[in-house]
Amino acid sequence: MIKARHILETVLYAEDLSAARRFYGDVLGLPAYQEVEGRLVFFRCAGQMLLVFNPSLSAAQISAKGPPAHGTKGNGHVCFRSTLTELEAWQKHFEASDIAIERIVDWPDGGRSVYVRDPAGNSVEFAESKIWHLPELKSLRDQKIVVATHNQGKLREINELLSPHGVTAVSASSLGFDEPEETESTFTGNAKLKAAYSAERSGLVALADDSGLCVDALNGDPGVYTANWAGPERDWTMAMRLVEEKLQSIGATTPDKRRANFNCTLCVAWPHGEVQFFEGRVHGHLTWPPRGARGFGYDPMFVPDGEMETFGEMDPAKKTLMSHRGRAFERLVDALL
Q1: Active site residues
Q2: Same domain, 160 and 119
Q3: Beta sheet of 40-45, edge-to-edge order
Q4: How far apart are alpha carbons 10 and 66 in whole angstroms?
Q5: Average pLDDT per run of 10 along the chain, which is 337 residues long?
Q6: CB within 10 Å: which end of the chain, N or C, has fewer?
């Protein structure tokens, strides 16, 4: 029998969506995902979505291309999972933000809840997971982890991303670990292989990534063999030329025939064997000849959708925001930090 699994969306209603956006965006820190003025505003919350609709419009919608009409005349409720330490921090945050705490409940079976109201009157609860006898979510915050890499540049980038959350990252090479052979045929498989290898040997949580360029006209190649196409000396000029020769040989000379994407899959592995994956992709097309001296690998021939510059020409800070690795780390931070 098929069973429902994770809840994907939580829906609330508010006529003043600007006030809702300020509360959930500015006060609670949720990133806005989509907004239609006067109609809706959607927020990302870790692996779920919080959707806020104007009920006077959502209850009257009749289009067959969207969801059925829905709405409410009463106050809704949403609950955010928190640790006890986070509850104490939320209380201070609400007091500093001049938001009244409506109630604090210490439940008979254990666990605490803190209640406030959003501007529309919806009940907003922050609670320990133990109120439902659920385990605490795993977190990397304030931990020391090992990054399954021998690349000091990559280690430095990862530390820059994670250090604001109290995470200290050390490399597998600094612990004397060799690099396992990447024998899997998928990004997920290789990332798991590397992360599990370091976690088992270090006793620490381990982080690994596997990434590459996937060209549509080449059936996804070079894909997991992205680095192999550059040869043992990692000659990326040669690798880019090889990609171009293969595209030319099949007559792929226009942007629509040269579609490609960069893929990054992160794997977090715990010493007891549990793993979690986070994927990021950026789509675009390949240009020739290569342009720009920034970045690395195939960056000088990759133009992301909506841009004129290649990754090789782009300002590094701008590239990080839209890159496959940046998007994968955004999902990791949402889930584990």
Answers
A1: 210
A2: no
A3: 9-13, 48-53, 40-45, 32-36
A4: 17
A5: 78 95 95 92 86 92 82 88 91 95 94 95 93 82 89 80 88 90 92 94 93 96 93 91 97 96 95 90 96 89 96 90 89 85
A6: N
